[in-house]
């Protein structure tokens, strides 16, 4: 059986991303390890409370020689446009989650609206990643 | 406590009493247990300093944290951490990432150019 264990999001700043995903979205830290032998590479992952078998790896955009500067710029450009991948979050009450996250300072791009599949809304993380928050019916 | 009592529509004293009756321990004891469990998870899965873990779970005093933790888990936070595999074992760093990050940075010949398309 194959399941989804983790997915990765590029981030501009891991501390900033960590604060956003834990303090604003209410996720918990799953792993936070800095490896000196890898030039202080930091493996940082978070996940939803109550969903222990899934985590999101918050990966810093590397510099050369891991990623050449031109490619890193392309990744940053795509992120700024919200085209570097989307995280689809589920909620049992989109309007309540919208109010809760807004009160914590999350700026929504799309307010909750009725869609054929439920109630959907969206916002972006501090790095520009597109996140949807959906109440699926 | 005040917020939880308010959410339950009870006075603080009544909330505390009813909580204890329903769950067998005071709200304070329950909260402390949850904080210590969270701290234990962070000791196993992160390499953050113990003082930072103490603060991040909402406790103010490292001394009190150490005492409460030791009472609950039977060993100090540092002994607890060393009893488990290192946190790095939880980092699922793929071999390709490991290789990329451990390549020598200063080579005498340059197989990489600033612009690989050039």
UniProtKB/TrEMBL annotation, chain A:
A Pfam family per the record: Glyoxalase
Region described as Disordered: 115-137
Signal peptide: none
Domain VOC: 3-136
Keyword Lyase: yes
UniProt cross-references to InterPro entries, sorted A to Z: Glyas_Bleomycin-R_OHBP_Dase, Glyas_Fos-R_dOase_dom, VOC_core
Keyword Oxidoreductase in annotation: yes
GO molecular function, one term: lyase activity
Protein name, per record: Catechol 2,3-dioxygenase-like lactoylglutathione lyase family enzyme
Source organism per UniProt: Murinocardiopsis flavida
Automatic annotation (TrEMBL), chain B:
Domain HTH araC/xylS-type: 1-83
Record has DNA-binding as a keyword: yes
Molecular function GO terms recorded: DNA-binding transcription factor activity; sequence-specific DNA binding
One Pfam family recorded for the sequence: HTH_18
Keyword Electron transport part of the UniProt annotation: no
This protein's UniProt keywords: DNA-binding, Transcription, Transcription regulation
SUPFAM superfamilies: Homeodomain-like (SSF46689)
Protein name, per record: AraC family transcriptional regulator
């Amino acid at each position: 059986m194959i399941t989804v264990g983790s997915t990765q999001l590029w981030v501009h700043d891991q501390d900033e991303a960590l604060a956003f995903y834990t303090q604003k979205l209410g996720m918990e830290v799953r792993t936070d390890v800095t490896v000196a032998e890898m030039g202080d590479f930091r493996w940082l992952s978070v996940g939803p409370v109550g969903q222990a078998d899934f985590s999101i790896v918050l990966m810093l955009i590397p510099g050369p020689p891991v990623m050449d500067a031109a490619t890193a710029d392309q990744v940053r450009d795509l992120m700024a446009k919200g085209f570097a991948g989307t995280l689809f979050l589920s909620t049992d009450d989109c309007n309540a989650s919208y109010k809760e996250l807004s009160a914590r300072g999350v700026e929504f791009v799309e307010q909750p609206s009725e869609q054929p599949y439920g109630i959907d809304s969206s916002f972006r993380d501090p790095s520009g990643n597109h996140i949807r928050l959906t109440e699926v019916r | 406590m005040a917020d939880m009592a308010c959410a339950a529509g009870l006075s603080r004293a009544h909330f505390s009493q009813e909580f204890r009756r329903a769950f067998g321990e005071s709200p304070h004891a329950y909260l402390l247990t949850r904080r210590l469990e969270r701290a234990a998870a962070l000791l196993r899965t992160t390499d953050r300093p113990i003082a930072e873990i103490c603060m991040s779970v909402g406790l103010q005093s490292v001394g009190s944290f150490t005492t409460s933790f030791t009472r609950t888990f039977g060993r100090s936070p540092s002994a607890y951490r060393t009893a488990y595999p290192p946190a790095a074992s939880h980092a699922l760093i793929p071999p390709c990432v490991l290789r990329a990050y451990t390549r020598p940075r200063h080579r005498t010949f340059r197989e990489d150019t600033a612009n690989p398309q050039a």
